């Protein structure tokens, strides 16, 4: 069986789903291919250990996609203040109030957001192949042919690779990637806390990693601890009470005593530079196009901005313009390169700067944190850039 579409999106993660929904009323014929079944929501009493800090700008994009308003409000938390510590003498604080914003970011669970996007997408005329994987991908001058393992063949003007950091679409298109392993694990877990967090996100830069505690509703926090692999493996092996004690100690008791709500999980951290985001009849988005260190919480926001910009380029192409034309797709790439490159350079530089134990460098970085903290205009500029 063969179907013809304008756009085939490979990957139904957060970025692929948001792109599909953003293009739903564009007049383009769409298909979505995803090998994994739809996510199941966790029981109401449990909390997903994988959370995201979604910027206000990306939340507005998701609302336009019909997804944000579907999220249960009782499971959302706002970051109103962020405190960053670079040592005993260095501190940087951002507040939404000082920047003229309602919040710096929203904390949302991965599975809740993914389910909201699935539900919003199912209301639209989008052909979904799930679970299904492609077995052959052929690029021709005027089309792309996608052969699926369920016997279906899709012909399209454009294929979008939104299939993650190990993107098969990227590899098949011959787009090169340069990986750099951090030799760190990102350990995630949720805790109930003794003291109220008051909508504050905390972050500590330490020689062996970066610890963040992010607010969840009520007296709960979500932890993201980027730490070297050996120490991370040892932390994961600890009994629940011992892990909670380690986090409480590392966080200087900022939210008091902690109690682990569910087993911790971990994922390896790496930086990936992709040579190009587009070629004739192919575009990459999300982790397929870039990976960044999670210390700034910007990975998912970069992906949503990819979806927002790519959708805009395709919808503004004109009625006769081929949506797979490389000259058109280059508009998307040019629009996204600066944001992605700046974020990669910033997060990679901060990771290396704060993992150094050189005395002069330590003094310089702490001085820099305190200097930025004393400059309200600069702080507000940084806040508004991150909120986009």
Low-pLDDT runs of 5+ residues are: none
Give the domain tally: 2
H-E string? EHEEHEEEEHEEEEHEEEEHHEEEEEHHHH
CATH class of the largest domain: Alpha Beta
What is the rounded distance between the termini? Answer: 43 Å
Envelope shape: globular
CATH architecture of the largest domain: 3-Layer(bba) Sandwich
Strand composition percent: 25-35%
The strand count comes to 20
H/I helix tally: 10
Question: How are the SSEs placed, and which strands pair?
Answer:
Layout: E1 2-10, H1 14-22, E2 30-33, E3 51-54, H2 56-64, E4 77-79, E5 81-85, E6 91-95, E7 105-109, H3 110-122, E8 127-129, E9 134-139, E10 144-148, E11 153-161, H4 168-172, E12 177-193, E13 200-206, E14 209-216, E15 220-228, H5 229-236, H6 240-250, E16 258-260, E17 265-274, E18 278-279, E19 282-284, E20 290-291, H7 299-315, H8 326-355, H9 359-373, H10 376-386
Helix pairs in contact: 1-3, 1-7, 7-8
Describe the protein.
By secondary structure, the protein is of the alpha+beta class. It has 2 domains: 2-39 and 111-179 and 271-352, FAD/NAD(P)-binding domain (3-Layer(bba) Sandwich); 64-109 and 182-269 and 357-386, D-Amino Acid Oxidase, Chain A, domain 2, CATH 3.30.9. It is 33% helix and 31% strand. The chain contains 10 helices and 20 strands. Strands 5, 6, 12, 13, 14, 15, 16, 17 and 20 form a 9-stranded mixed sheet that branches. Strands 1, 2, 8, 9, 10, 11, 18 and 19 form an 8-stranded mixed sheet that branches. Strands 3-7-4 form a 3-stranded antiparallel sheet. Helix 1 (14-22) packs parallel to helix 3 (110-122), helix 1 (14-22) packs parallel to helix 7 (299-315) and helix 7 (299-315) packs antiparallel against helix 8 (326-355). It is globular. The relative contact order is 0.17. The model has no long low-confidence stretch (mean pLDDT 92).
């Amino acid at each position: 069986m063969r179907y013809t579409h304008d756009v085939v999106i490979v990957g139904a993660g957060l970025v692929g789903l948001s792109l599909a929904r953003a293009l739903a009323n564009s007049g383009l014929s769409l298909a979505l291919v995803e090998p994994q079944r739809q996510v199941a929501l966790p029981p109401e009493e449990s909390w997903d250990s994988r959370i995201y800090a979604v910027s206000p700008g990306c939340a507005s994009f998701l609302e336009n996609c019909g997804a944000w308003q579907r999220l249960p409000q009782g499971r959302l938390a706002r970051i109103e203040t962020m405190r960053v510590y670079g040592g005993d003498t260095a501190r940087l604080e951002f507040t939404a109030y000082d920047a003229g914003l309602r919040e710096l970011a929203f904390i949302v669970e991965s599975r809740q957001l993914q389910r909201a996007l699935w539900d919003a997408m199912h209301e639209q005329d989008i052909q979904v192949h799930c679970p299904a994987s492609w077995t052959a991908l052929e690029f021709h001058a005027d089309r792309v042919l996608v052969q699926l393992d369920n016997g279906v063949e899709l012909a399209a003007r454009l294929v979008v690779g939104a299939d993650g950091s190990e993107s098969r679409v990227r590899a098949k298109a011959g787009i090169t990637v340069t990986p750099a392993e951090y030799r760190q694990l990102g350990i995630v877990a949720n805790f109930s806390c003794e003291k109220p967090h008051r909508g504050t996100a905390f972050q500590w830069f330490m020689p062996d990693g970066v610890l963040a505690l992010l607010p969840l509703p009520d007296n709960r926090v979500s932890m993201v601890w980027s730490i070297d692999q050996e120490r991370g493996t040892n932390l994961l092996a600890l009994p629940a009470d011992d892990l909670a004690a380690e986090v409480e100690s590392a966080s200087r008791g900022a939210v008091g005593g902690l109690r682990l709500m569910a087993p911790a999980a971990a994922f390896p951290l790496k930086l990936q530079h992709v040579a190009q985001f587009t070629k004739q009849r192919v575009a990459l988005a999300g982790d397929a196009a870039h990976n960044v260190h999670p210390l700034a919480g910007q990975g998912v926001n970069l992906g949503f901005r990819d979806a927002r910009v790519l959708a805009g380029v395709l919808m503004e192409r004109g009625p006769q313009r081929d949506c797979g034309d490389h000259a058109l797709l280059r508009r998307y790439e040019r629009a996204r390169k600066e944001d992605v490159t700046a974020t990669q350079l910033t997060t990679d530089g901060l990771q290396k700067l704060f993992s150094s134990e050189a005395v002069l460098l330590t003094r310089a970085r702490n001085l820099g944190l305190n200097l930025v903290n004393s400059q309200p205009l600069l702080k507000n500029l940084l806040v508004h850039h991150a909120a986009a």
